[in-house]
Amino acid sequence: MLLPLILLFLVGATSAGDACAQNSLPYDTTYTFAHYKVRRAFYEGLPNGKNEIVFLGNSITENGDWNELFKNKNIVNRGIGGDVCFGLLDRLDEVLASQPESIFLMIGINDIGRGVPVDVIAGKIQEILQTIQQESSKTELYLQSVLPINEQVIWYEYMKNKSKQIVLLNEKLKTIAANENITYLDLYASFADENGQLLPEYTADGIHLSAEGYLHWRKVFKEEGIKL
């Protein structure tokens, strides 16, 4: 299972990197890579359900079997491996078409890997949150912190030495959540060791989660009183 997860993450990073030359900014914000297009088209082809609970994000979200994990048929997975804030914002129409009951958002690690400034990432996530509030006002929003990485395990060069940026982004996300009156879920603290590294039992490649990692995610939700 490890190789598919790695490839899933790298598809977005590699394809977007090829398109970086078309980006006039000093950092890469492209997102229309092959996997993004396929998954987005798939999600757009699915019927809208009632009382949807949406898990929204990148490969860490896409790889989670949320229905099985929480035994709830109303949960829908809207993760796309390799996705960034800019791509997620662009596909919000599909997510909000059902006026979901709740959304659990986690995004930003791929932006960090591309060298997008933390302030830019935080601002784009705030724009995502505000768009959801404006277009689906009854949706209960949960902003999840970006998870730590394990820099002793990870072998993606573009993701190394990024732990400090993750901490800085999470600090900004916590403030944004408070300002927007949104529930902030600090998953980072539950997945990190004393050095701010993703605990090895929760990952195999330093960034994506193992089965034990997803089971721990469920445990954190239970401890936070989140019932799904």
TrEMBL record:
Source organism per entry reads: Sunxiuqinia dokdonensis
Question: Which residue numbers delimit the SGNH hydrolase-type esterase domain?
Answer: 55-214
Q: Which InterPro entries match?
A: Ester_Hydrolysis_Enzymes (IPR051532), SGNH_hydro (IPR013830), SGNH_hydro_sf (IPR036514)
Instruction: Indicate the secretion signal residues.
Output: 1-21
Q: Example GO molecular function term? A: phosphatidylcholine lysophospholipase activity
Q: Name it.
A: SGNH hydrolase-type esterase domain-containing protein
The record's keywords, sorted A to Z, are: Signal
Q: Which Gene3D superfamilies does UniProt cross-reference here?
A: SGNH hydrolase (3.40.50.1110)
